[in-house]
Structure formats: structure tokens, C-alpha cells
Amino acid sequence: MRQSMTIIPTLREVPSDAEVKSHQLLLRAGFMRQTASGIYSYLPLGLKVIQNVEKIIREEMERAGAVELLMPTLQQAELWVESGRWNSYGPELMRMHDRHNREFALGPTHEEVITSLLRDEVKSYKKLPLTLYQIQTKFRDEKRPRFGLLRGREFIMKDAYSFHSSQESLDEVYDRLFTAYSNIFSRCGLNFRAVIADSGAMGGKDTHEFMVLSEIGEDTIAYSDTSSFAANIEMAPVVNTAVKTGEAAKELEKVETPDQKTIEEVSSFLDVPAEKCLKTLLWKVDDEFVVVLVRGDHELNDIKLKNLFNAAIVEPATPEETKEILGVNFGSLGPVHMKTSEIKVVADAAVQMLENAVCGANEDGFHYVNVNPDRDFPAVQYEDLRFIQEGDPSPDGQGTIKFAKGIEVGHVFKLGTRYSESMNGMILDENGRQKPMIMGCYGIGVSRTVSAIAEQFNDEKGLIWPVNIAPYQVHLIPVNMKDEAQKQLGEELYEELTRAGYDVLIDDRPERAGVKFADSDLIGMPVRVTVGKKAQEGIIEMKIRENGESFEIPVGELLERLKTIIG
After folding, report:
1. Beta strand 74-76 with 103-106: parallel, antiparallel or unpaired?
2. Which residues form the Aminoacyl-transfer RNA synthetases class-II family profile domain (predicted)?
3. Which of 140, 265, 397, 540 measures 20 to 30 Å from 57, CA to CA?
4. What's the CATH number where 536 sits?
């Protein structure tokens, strides 16, 4: 491609609204432009990068036995009502009406559509297993679009769905797709981890996220420092190592704590460490209120609470609800002598090991000291309900937990019969009985993956694309297009490299050398070939973008050198 015939609008200044490196560089290097908040146009360079990622995805998906199709973006509300997600998905679902006042949604995902399609076309176990995928634009009305392509309202996604007649078949395909995803992200050159995850609004069990390690990631990964264990912090189980010290139980006592409401305030006021305080919370679990207890130095993990009750929605009670139900304000709640004995109380496992602890006295401005769980509030269910912390033992028994930030680029789910049961996706089994199809779901954020690659591959000069992701493999630069020898040799090399199968961008613009070189570094192609003052001698310069190494070579050695560097 001739640079004079395409559009690569590079910028010298960093856009003021671009917060992270990938967003800044993709804008500055002319790969994309914003058309509205969280919505972008992909310019020619950006589209080529996306197509290269899609090519890798297609190759690995087809190798795993998946078949490509394309489903509509516009989805009728009736399908979402069938699945039960029309009201529960949340405000991220973009809804609209057609001219006949029928309700539709712009698809954020396609479980409903694919289940509807397969229930009409597949009636027997003999046609299963079947794995179908698509690469398509998706829509989610993010409350706060940010970081460019990492959190947008319109984005490109690869979503796949598998259908099975048995759990064993699902397990087999899940493992195959897990391997395919690992191959995809490895081929993209990414430093990533596959972590145990929560399925969220998708439903299902046994899920993994593929997280690209990055300081600007919005997710926290808990991983072992000596083993392969890794999990999203929301899903990391906690090994309870708390033990009783054998401290003699003291008499329960109510003490005045005026205006002391937070754990930090109470701990300081009573000169008691936070780990000897008890945090009492009121949460609404679907339509039921539940009291939840955690140690003062721990944080409640609401995902674990949700999973414990198999709930659709969990949320903290409001101050008004708390006052009405428990008769006291936040900051003075406690499990001892609560207003109502009918409300269910659950506690994190570490709470049971507390001795002579502190908790709210259910009276504003007062706390109990010398609280002992089994004696003072015996009717409690103990579970793993807290967030794991750095330094905790790894759940697999190997090493200790460390934290890292990650960008989620892929997610695989075992959906089970969540959608086939609610939407009547039935087949006849080998005995002629009707049963719901068992499903799996597998997603990759294509545009997000491009941004994650840009986040990991850059330096102070610009982007550094991996060879198989780069928009072009070779950036060919005749320095002075008015110099006939440089122009002619540049054109000859362009033809030769193109015939040899290389994807080449030739900078044939009438620009100064400094502008061409700065743009080349910013755009970040793997190899730059410069045709300069030694063109008449048949000498050219090669520069490797990844390490900055440059050297002069005779023209005749170019193909052999490129074969070594690029393949």
C-alpha cells in the first residue's frame, strides 16, 4: 500500500481525553478516531490489525471444531423475556422500539438468539455436539466508557456457543476451547493468565477469564507465587487459617462509644486492633434481608454472598431499610441481642475464631466488648465470605497469594441448561426422551484484545506491533522522493517485496525525513527499510522496531534478512 493513497492521520500531541497508553497511541498513530463517547471509527491501519487478530481467532476456532455463522445485531425483546434477562440484565442493555412499537435490543451477547435458532433446527442428540461462533459488533450502554477500546459502548467480539447431549461432551469441548483461547492469546504475543472467574449475568458454572497483565487493568487477579493457581479476586477461595489463642472468655460488657461508627474509629477509640472487631452488615439477597458478619480487617465479597444463596441480585440495605428492620443506624449494628431473631445471620469463617471481640450494641453510640461468637450469638452459619488478601495461603496449598491487575480479553463458561430450559431448547436423547440441550459459551473481545496488545507493546516513540498482528510487516521509506535513484530503488523494492508475499507500506509522501521516521516509529511496523543517500551504491538500511537495532546491507541481502526476521 502507498502511504499517499491511504489515511494515517498521525498526531504529535497526546489527546487530552486519552488516559492510558494504548488509547493515546492508537489515536496518535492514526489507527482510530472517536465519533462519540465509547464509539470509534477504525481507520485503515486499525482495521488491518483487527483483521489480523480475527484471522488468528478463526484459525484456532476452526482447529477446535467450531463453525462460523453470523446472527443479527437487532434482537427481539420476546427472546430476552423467555430467558428471564430482559429485566435482570441491567441498564447496559440498549433497548428500542420499531415503528410498530415492538421492543428490541442491540445485542450485547447472543445466548438468546443462538438458543432460539438451535431449538428450531436441532431435535436429536445425533446432531450434537455442535459449536458455532461469530465475529460481530456488540453494544453495551456503559455508564462510564473509558480507556478507549478497553471499555466502549460499541465493540467487536467473537462469541461462540456449544451444544451437547451430555456433560462429558461439554467438558471435552470446554477443554478444547480453553486450549484454543490459550493459543490465540499466545499467538497475539500477550502476557496473560487464565483465571477462575464468576459468570455474572451470563449464568452457568465453571468459568475462566483470560486476563492480560497490565497496571491499568480494572480486574484484580489473585495468584500463587509458586504455582499455577490464579483466580479473579471475586472468586478466589480463602483458606481459613484463623485459630483461637485460648484466651479466657471475659464477661460481655456494653460501653459508650459516642460518634464512633467505622471500624477505624471504634478500633482507635477502644484501643483494639481491627482484627478483633466485628463488622455487621445488612444485605438484601433477592427479596430477603440477611445479616452478614466479617472480621474488622476483612471485606465482604458480595459475589460469594450471591453464590451462597444462588441469588440473582444482592445489594446492601439502605440506611432507611436498616433502621426499619434492625432499629439502629449503621455503625452500631451487632449480632448480639438484635431487634429481630427471625432474620438469617451468616458469617465469614474467620469470625468464629474471634475471642473477646468488639461489635455494635444495636444502640446508637454503644458497642459491646468481650464478645465471643459461640456464647453470645450461636445461631450463625459460617461460610467463606470474604475477599482473599495478599499474603494469604494459596487455595491450592502451594505458596502465598499475590495480586496483579489484569484486562479481561476472553471468558469461557459452562452454561449448562440455563438457557435451553427457560427457552425450551429440547432434544430427544438415545432413549427417545426429551431433555434440554447442555450449553457452553465462549467470548473474546476482539477490539479489546487489540487495545491490550497496544498496552503491552510500546515504548516512548510509539507502538511496537508483533509481526503477526502488525498492519504491515515492512515500512519501506524512500527518504527523498525527488531523488530519482531513491525513488526508483524504492519502487523496485516495493514490487520485489510484494511479489515475495510481504505486506508492505511504502512512504511515498513528499515529506521531510524526520517526519517520515517519526511517523514510522509511532505506527510501529516490525521492520523499517530506508532507501537513502546510498541508493546508487545499492546500500539500504534496516531497522528492527522491537529493539531499535539498525544496520546497512546490500539490496541483494534484503529478502534473506527479512526471511530470518519475519519468516
Report:
1. antiparallel
2. 33-466
3. 140
4. 3.40.50.800
